[in-house]
Amino acid sequence: MPNSSSDFSSRPFEYPSADASLSCGQHSLTKLAKQYGTPLYVYSADQILARFMLFQQALADRSHLICYAVKANSALAILKLLADHGAGFDIVSGGELQRVLIAAPEAAGRIVFSGVGKTAEEIDQALDADIYAFNVESEAELKLLASRAAKRKRKARFALRVNPDVFAETHPYISTGLREHKFGIDIRQARRIYNEAAGNKWLTAHGVSVHIGSQIRSADPFGAAMKRVAKLVRELEIDGIAIKSVDAGGGLGIDYHATLSGPDNFNPRAKVEEYAAALETSLAGLNVQLLLEPGRFLVAQAGALLARVLYVKRNGKKTFVVTDAAMNDLIRPALYQAFHEIVPVLPRAGRSAAVDIVGPVCETGDFFARDRKLKPVEPGDLVAVLDAGAYGMAQSSNYNTRPRPAEVLLRGKKATLIRRRETIADLLGPELPLSNHSK
Length: 439
Ligand SMILES: *Cc1c(COP(=O)(O)O)cnc(C)c1O
What we know:
CATH topology of the largest domain: TIM Barrel
Bound molecules: pyridoxal-5'-phosphate
Helix content: 25-40%
CATH architecture of the largest domain: Alpha-Beta Barrel
Number of strands: 21
């Protein structure tokens, strides 16, 4: 594996020398921007695989399946890359099911289907694909699953997604493991529901699943949730229900505040090992397959959003750097007050000054950073918004009728355009021809 995609650094991006362009492995981001235009998402396949291998290695002593959470970054090429290395997938919609089936049809048996609002149609598609298991989030959903399975004469393997009532320190919008959240089934009800389902010949109780939230930095809440799951598995055993798998969900966080120039204290290998150890301690003695659903941890730091500076404008005391990328391309700062490190691709001499880095969209919330120290930039310069590989392109929109960025996947010496830039014609297609509406 090339140097900086090694498993112990935060990011695959670095300045090879003081006056060189920011690079990813052997690729200059200046050249990539010239070739593919901006805004542009760039991902390191090498880092994604290195991160995936960390999970594989940390769980080597237990039967396990790493189900990549497709919603973090659903690019077909990334799904294929991971499937080729044995990954399973955690999906939350029929659309994501289609993505996996197109990218890696052979991985159908390694899919778990999560989500609070599965439709009958989506359930049918997943039954037909013979996925690994349904992570069921309510009694009503379990009933629907049973009736669809009976209709198709196909047994459905399910896990109840239990809500363990564990608090995880993260942004309130991405915390999911408390009783007050819409997710999962109250763990105190789960034993009864498993027992009731045992009488249905179209349902097979395969697992217990849990997902307590996202961007969780400490291993403790994962261990605490798994302890409650393990207790449930033992109770079910007493009831004669043999659970074969437990799914610990996703949610392991990264360090968005690591700086590219300063010391890098983030150690992904140590993080994954600590996380796996916390789960293993809680599972002690249980002979079950362990499923994980990491999303962000696999892809966030492998990606950057490249943008070109359009204007540098001063309003009173404030300086605004206006880029050609905007909140429609990366909404995390606007949606979660998320911090993303932003650096010039080819730094100029001079002092850093506090600026707001903003996009062209007509919303005050359209910013990537506020009062951020940035080296001097001029119109035409490139900046890189780092740690943008997860929930970046996946949450993008066409707001302001802005075509979405192109995406490039880097692997060793190779750069591959995995999604072409959208055109205005792509956006207007569903509304045309206009004459149909005026008849
Ligand atoms: C979002 C989600 C994940 C992935 O979360 P990350 O924080 O990206 O690891 C996994 N499982 C479920 C059920 C999810 O909703």
